[in-house]
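Hey, I was hoping to borrow your eyes for a little while. For a while now I've been wondering how a particular protein folds. The fold is given in discrete form, as structure tokens running alongside the sequence. Could you read through the record and tell me how the tokens relate to the sequence? Take your time with it, there's no hurry, and the full record follows here:
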Amino acid sequence: MDFDLTKEQQLLSDAVQRFFAKEYSFAKREEILDSQEGWSREIWAKLAELGLLGLHVPEEHGGMGGATVETMLTMNALGRGLLLEPYLPSAILATALVRDLGSAAQKEELLPAMASGERIAVPAHGEAEARDDLASVATTAARSRDGFTLSGRKSFVPHASSADVLLVSARTSGKPREERGISLFLVPRGASGLTLRTYRTLDGQRASEVTLKDVRVPATALLGAEGGAYPAISATWDLGVAALCAEAAGALQALLDATVEYTKTRKQFGVPIAKFQALQHRMVEMLIQVEQARSMSYLAAIRTTDVDPSARRHAISAAKVLTGQACRRVGQEAVQLHGGMGMTDELNVGHYFKRLTSIELSLGDTEHHLERFVRESAARKESA
């Protein structure tokens, strides 16, 4: 298999790397992190200028039509830069859902505006009792004369406070934990009856608890067929997992580089600690973990477009498991090799560690994906 990048892909990768080196220094990120919103609209506009917000927007709406390798390269750079802006929830998850489920009118209204950075949309799907089960949706959408009335609660919705539109999943039929009967709705963040409780996450980003109390939306707010949103949600979440694996690969490499550089300058007994064989062995183990995570991010990116859902889930979960293990092991080793300084806000090491910990827990933690990998493996053996 050819893993060489095309000329266009290499140019994109170089452009994103240059952007972060020039526009997103550690000091700049600290300034954004401490701001009231926790992200920068200026940076968001520049990401749009680079075309990065339109990677999953169809070409007829001004995008690149679902560029999976380009997404991997972009997320890799975002991981190195520790981006705080709502790239994953809006430019990947929400964009893919609108692209795959939206009507012609909905696509025409939303996708060009999302690609240009003028509008931000994020999914509001997870619930407190779901425990990473995508089919576990208790929020309801009751039909009314001119539309639907939504009631329920969504837990941990990243960047909900920054969004113009929430893509809210709600049950229009079926029983709890059934895949059938889940619908998706476009709900303005300022809709009557919708409230947010926003807080900082472990890595400093913003997330919200979203409560919907008799929120009325018109029939045109329904995204896709009524009761048929689950397959698209499942495929989109796998796309998001692949993107997280790519982001982790970038962050892991940056963390390894920082650790190796630190051990060359930190001295004990008059010599750099990089000279100590025991520490050299630990850094080699870190390198192996980083390379494994990078390889699995390639696999995940390739398999996001697999037409066989079982094969897609099998590969994506394998990637998330190995990536999650690398996040934990490399992160812990980096902090330990830096000593007490590794947990301070003054060094970027602690920030990488926090972000990698969040990645390991996002869109299904390591345990969840290991269980899914085992289930898919058993199903594939039975069908063979």
Observations:
- The longest helix spans residues 230-265.
